[in-house]
What we know:
Keywords: Cell membrane, Membrane, Transmembrane, Transmembrane helix, Transport. The chain has 18 helices and no strands. By secondary structure, the chain is mostly helical.
Amino acid sequence: MSSATVEKPSFLQAQIGGLPRPFWALWGGTLVNRLGTMVMPFTGVYLTQSRGLSLTAAGLVMGVFGAGSLLSQIVAGTLTDRIGRRATLSGGMLATAAAMLALGYSSTLPAILASMFVLGLVIDVYRPASNALVADLVSPEERPRAYGLLFWGINLGYAVGMTAGGWLAGLGFVWLFWIDAVSSVIFAVLVWRAVPETRPEGRSPGGGFGIVLRDRLMLGFTLVSLGNALVYTQTMTMLPVAMTEVVKLTPGQFGLAMALNGVLIVIVQPLVSAWLGRRDAARTFALGLIVMGAGFALTAFVTSTLGLAVTIVIWTAGEIVTAGIPGAVVAALAPAALRGRYAGLFGFSWSLAAVLAPLMGGVLLDVGPRTLWFTVGGVALASAAGMLLLGPAIRRR
């Protein structure tokens, strides 16, 4: 008597198999877009060196960008639900391309301010639409893995884009603007051609964000996400300042240590995303926040490049653990017709953190490095506790 043998899926199939083709079109477009993301990391250098702005004027320009970014997620979330995911994403990418070129060719402060505000408004319009598309296309069981793979693609593209951007900036900043614009157009066209519209048929519920703001569970999760964002955003705001100004590392030493973050994410994250996706979302997210908090708190004792590298490994491990969970939680909490607005509120927490983190971090660093890093670690622990408190309600939902 013979029985058929059932072949177990290969490791590669377990990591990337089972996801629909439109998801991979979205993933590919996101990767291309991130490969071309070269302007924003070098904006400060461009404004001061190429356009000759003072540090004060450059700070004003970045503040205007932040104001546009705060509005962006609210507007994009509403558009995602009302006109559709595909139209919002593609339209946002085309608008980003236009704003990039406008900024690249602006030579006066008023023109630069206007271009930067518009860029802040449109550059992340794709995020709520992308999050809603994944929720529409992928089954609940596979969403953590799908969001994790999207996170991995963003980091992979960004790492390559940063490296190429540094080289191209030496040839002329206009190259960065054109490559960023072209990659945005490619993303728009790919989504328009290869990703179907998934917005539920029928009229989108009215009321703007009021209906989302009445969901106390979503508000609680948004506060947890704000804490997460305030912690992580320090990597782009106060961490470079503290390491170069207080610890006295050179920019090269800091950059070498920070490269560990991208390398670890690119290598490790796709290997563990499927396994993490099968764990309880609230407990896993809380664990990731605790590990991140420990890594940042230990930064208070860093005195060398090696010490910084150790802390980066620790908080990167926490970042990898949390990677695919927030999108999956938002998708689970949101009614199908409101996924754009729920994703927009989640995105707003990150935009708000981008404004608050340098303001709070600067004040705390003035008091002392230990005050800053112990506070950052404390915020992570408080956010983890909040996530554990929300866990039972998230599981019921």
